[in-house]
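RETRY 2/3 - previous attempt timed out on the joint model. Re-submitting the same 412-residue input unchanged.
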Amino acid sequence: MDKIPILRMGKFLLVSIQVDMHDRLALQLQDDLTNRIVSARARGVLIDISSLEVVDSFIGRMISNIAAMARVLDAQAVVVGMQPAVAITLVELGLSLEGVRTALDVERGMELLRALVAAQALQ
Amino acid sequence: MPPAAAPTLRAILSKDQNELLAEWLQAQLSASTVRAHLMRETELREQSREFLTLLQRAVAAGAAETFEGPEWASMREFLAAASRSRAQEGFTATETAIFVLSLKRPLFERLRGDIGSDARLLADALWHITTILDRAALYVTETFLNARESVIQSQQRELLELSTPVVELWHSIVALPLIGTLDSERTQVVMESLLQKIVETGATIAIIDITGVPTVDTLVAQYLLKTVAAARLMGADCFISGIRPQIAQTIVHLGVDLRDVTTKATLADAFMLALRRTQAKLPQAAGNS
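RETRY 2/3 succeeded.
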């Protein structure tokens, strides 16, 4: 079974979803990522879904859940690179991913993540 | 065509074609529906002559009453072209149908003259020629309506594309000035073109200006909220501007919740805010918490 790689960049984790998501893969990712956040003491997670072209309600909820779990583990989560068609589908499904931070591409996502972590450090 | 009536009709159509054409033209030109400024007489004469020739050919080929048969193929082709050109030139459906139907009178008069007192034969001939001409007129009308319909559809499509221009106001700021009523089909196009433009330009802020939207009901408000949500999912902030006082009142009366959306009264205000957000490079500009 293929696995979605989780890359570490300093205190951030980078997840790039390059394959078609199916339910098992999403559950596996959820498991791996939460473990990895704890073991790496990550402060931020960047989820790149620019290659994701098809979503259903389950995958939509998984994205939202993963972001929420990261927050619980004291890591900021940012979803980047959502395709227009995916965004429309999620909105039509009624999943507007409230509370998930988004950015247009990886670069902007990293920028946002750094700013968020810096802001948090001051609190 | 019953064998009794066929030879007479055939004879009239081949022998007296020129007289018939003259009478028919006379009838068409003197009718109240004549549109001299839309079609010249020579053109009308040409069309009428071709119609008679084709009719004669089809009748001579021993065509059955059914207008759908292969003998009528060239006639159908001719009528389709004629009615399409009339639809484009601005004729009404009635005027187009009358082109065919006005042949009845001169043709009937000729039949009466030729057949004379044989009432049974005359009735037979009249019935058959009426069937053919009525079918031809119906066919003309149908083609006419189809042509009109396709013109309307293509205009609608053009309007749809014309009415959703996404403009780049500044580096990473795009605006979508909406003009006209929003329905579900149009909203889909609007949403797609806005999101596509966000991807192309890498914009972080999108402004939807609804100054040109005449009314906002719950459905339109929902469309707007959906578009804002979709843009946010892609990482762009979305402002709504151009809310007229009347519309502000309507939105509140309808109980539409726009609290999560940044709204501004004018496009200028929204643009100022967008400039401030992008120039200051505030992290909030790329997603709200």
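DSSP finds eleven helices and five strands in chain B. Closing ticket.
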